Amino acid sequence: MTTRIRAWAARTPGGPLQRFDYDPGPLGTEDVEIAVEYCGICHSDLSMLDNAWSMTQYPFVPGHEAIGRVVAVGEDVKGLKVGQRVGVGWNASSCAHCASCLSGNHHLCSGVQGTIVGRHGGFADRLRVHWLWAVPLPAGLDAASAGPLMCGGITVFYPLLMTNLSPTARVGVVGIGGLGHLALQFLNAWGCEVVAFTSSASKREEALALGAHRVVSSTDAAAMRALQGSLDLILYTVNVPLDWDALMATLAPKGRLHFVGAVLEPVPVQAMQLISFEQHVSGSPTGPRHAMDKMLEFAARHNITPRVEHFPMREVNAALQRLREGKPHYRIVLDADFE
Question: pTM of the full predicted structure?
Fold first, then answer.
């Protein structure tokens, strides 16, 4: 167990990350300490860095897609041992006694603590979390690319579980980026007929290679009309608005528009359409621990791998700038290089 953690932190909103060491204090009795090997970068890291959600505390250490090995365990830790490789996602702790936790929805706990909300994250050589949120990696997963599964992966996989999605369903994925490229792979392996919506014609061939059966331009009115009434689920993975009426028109009776991308403006919905066709509009954050286990097992079984670019952690500012410019293909992973 270390008494000094080396990290990269921002001291002001939107400011550059600089080297930052801190004393983590005694290890909690139910906490584990993880030696970080890799940590993905998520758009949520940028939002928190910029204090876009008005809840960032500085100095701020980003990083909530961490992969590493357990190096110390508290005396009350369950199911983990030193040397075990684990992953950590958006959440680091939950109360374990509220109604949400007792029903298996730990991610909805009123006292849940985000890995980078009021805590120091994984852009560091060490990371501490409650044992429940240190998820063992199954054999067969590549540790160097698995980080984005811990946030992006569970974000798009959990809706398959929460909606009891049939493997014969027809599903649309809006946005072929950091979330969407994983959604295509999961849905194809699930057995669904998959339609990729994109405004970029250059992504067509890769979307097909990732698992889409069809690729439709979200700005092509005729192509959108051709899908009218056909989709059982639309997984909306981006944070920009589309033509909502055209998109909703592609839903089948009992169909669902489900948001995992944080669209910041209100989404107009026609109540009569929902009523007439028993349709749904919903959303979800990441997912509970049991869903994370299932997601990782599914990814290992079906060889589902995030497409990543690697940067050494010392080049974290260059990596963040690349993400701001929308250039990653499709996720960025930092390799811890403190030694």
Answer: 0.95
Single-letter amino acid code for the residue at 185: Q
CB atoms within 10 A of CB 23: 8
Residues 178 and 210 in one domain: yes
CA distance 241 to 247: 10
CA 293 – CA 226 distance, rounded (Å): 38
At 87-127, the pLDDT tens digits run 999 999 999 999 999 999 999 999 999 999 999 999 999 99
Task: Specify the number of domains making up the chain.
Answer: 2
**DSSP class per residue in 100-162:** HHHTT-GGG-TT-EETTSSS--SSBSEEEEEGGGSEEPPTT--HHHHGGGGTHHHHHHHHHHH
Same domain, 107 and 189: no
Whether 167 is in a domain gets the answer yes
| CA atoms lying within 13 Å on the CB side of residue 11 | 4
